[in-house]
C-alpha cells in the first residue's frame, strides 16, 4: 500500500478512500455530536444548529460529514504538492499522511469549526502558491481575503493568518499597496454582509462580538499519545532534513511554496495560544503543513525499513487509540 502511494497511479484516489475508511472506523462506530466552544463564531453555531434541525440530531450524519471533509482536504493538499512540484515526482503520500495523522487523536474525529476552516486554509495556501505564476491576479487576491473572512466567521482566532497572507504576498510578489488593499476588502466583505443580515433580521448583534483569548495550552497525554507524538516528530524531523538536502534541486517557485508551508506551520502552532481553553482540537491546522513535511520521510529514504516501520507504527497506534475512543 505504501508503495502505491509513492506513485501517481490513477486508482490511488479510490485506494486512499479505502485507506481512510480503514483507519477512521471509530468515527462511524462511535459517532459524536459536535460541540461549540467560546472561540467559535456565530456562523459555525448557525451551521451546527441547522444541521441538527435538518437531520434531527443524527450523529452518523456528522461523522460522515467529518470524514468527507478530511478526505477532500487530503486530496486538495496533495494536489498543491504535486502541482507546485514540491517533490521530484507526483505521489499521494501527503494525502496518506494527512489521513493518518488526523486519526491519532480522538478530538479530530468530531466535526468542529477548525475542521471546517482547514478546508478554507488549504485553498488559501493553494492560491498563495499560484500567485507567482500570474501577473494580473486581483480576483485571486480578493478570493484569498474572502476565504479568510469566512474562516473568521466560523472561528475568529483565524484572524492571525492575515499575517500569513501578507507574508505570502511578500514572498511571491513585489509589494503593491492596491493588491494588499484588495485582500483586506475581501476579508471584510463576508463579515460586513453577515453582520448586515443579522442586523436587518433584528437578531442580537452582541452574538457577533469576537472572542479572542491568550492562554497556555495544557494537555494531558496518555502513553499512547506520547508514543504517537514522538513518532510524528521523528518523521517530521527526518522529512525536514531530506527537504533541506533536496531544496537546491527544486525550481525557485517550488522553494517559495515551501516557504509558505513553513510559515503556515508557524502560525498554526501559535493558534492554540489564542484560545480560552486547551485541547488537541486546536492543533488540527498544524497537521496540514506537518503532513506535507512528513511525506518526504516516506519518499526519500533509501532504506525501506524506516518508512515501513513508521507508517505501520502510526497505523497500529491509530487503531489502538481508536479502540479506546470507542470503548470510552
SSE diagram, text form:
Layout: H1 2-5, H2 12-23, H3 26-29, H4 42-54, H5 59-83, H6 93-101, H7 113-130, H8 138-154, H9 161-172, H10 177-200, H11 223-246, H12 252-270, H13 287-299, H14 305-327
Helix pairs in contact: 2-6, 5-6, 5-7, 6-13, 7-8, 8-10, 9-12, 11-13, 11-14, 12-13
In words, what does this structure look like?
- This protein is mainly alpha-helical and 328 residues long.
- The chain has one domain (2-116, 213-327).
- It has helices at 2-5, 12-23, 26-29, 42-54, 59-83, 93-101, 113-130, 138-154, 161-172, 177-200, 223-246, 252-270, 287-299, 305-327.
- The longest helix has 25 residues, at 59-83.
- It is globular and about 65 Å long.
- 39% of the residues are buried.
Give the % helix: 55-70%
Structural class: mainly alpha
Total domain modules: 1
Order of helices and strands: HHHHHHHHHHHHHH
Mean pLDDT: 85
Number of helices: 14
**What's the gyration radius in Å?**
20 Å
Give me the count of strands. Answer: 0
Our measurement of the CA-to-CA distance between the termini, rounded to an integer number of angstroms, reads: 31 Å
Query: How much strand?
Result: under 5%
Main beta sheet: strand number and arrangement?
none
Which ranges are low-confidence, i.e. pLDDT below 50, for 5 or more consecutive residues? none
The global form is globular
Question: Based on the structure, what is the oligomeric state of the protein chains?
Answer: single chain
